[in-house]
Design goal:
With 79 residues, this protein is mainly α. Helices cover 42% and strands 0% of the residues. Helix 2 packs antiparallel against helix 3.
Length: 79
């Protein structure tokens, strides 16, 4: 099974997403490989996709999602 590609989004685009979509994006970011060194591939893809946690794009995307989520209201689950 192949994972869906993750592309960079601006903070304005992230604000437009629902909390559920933001949490899904956060989960996708967590599923990225650690680095190219630990990957079974020889070269990174230059298509603009976020693939590795040690890339500047991943760090920026993770920070942006966490920042948008921090401004959302927390609603506890119903018991």
């Amino acid at each position: 099974m192949r994972r869906r590609s993750i592309f960079a989004k601006s903070p304005i685009e992230l604000e437009a997403l629902s909390t559920k979509q933001l949490l899904g994006r956060l989960k996708q970011l967590h599923q990225c490989e650690e680095s190219l060194d630990f990957s079974d591939r020889d070269v990174a893809d230059d298509s603009g996709r976020i693939e590795f946690k040690q890339s500047a794009e991943w760090i920026a995307a993770y920070h942006d999602v966490k920042q948008v989520l921090s401004r959302r209201e927390h609603v506890p689950r119903k018991q």
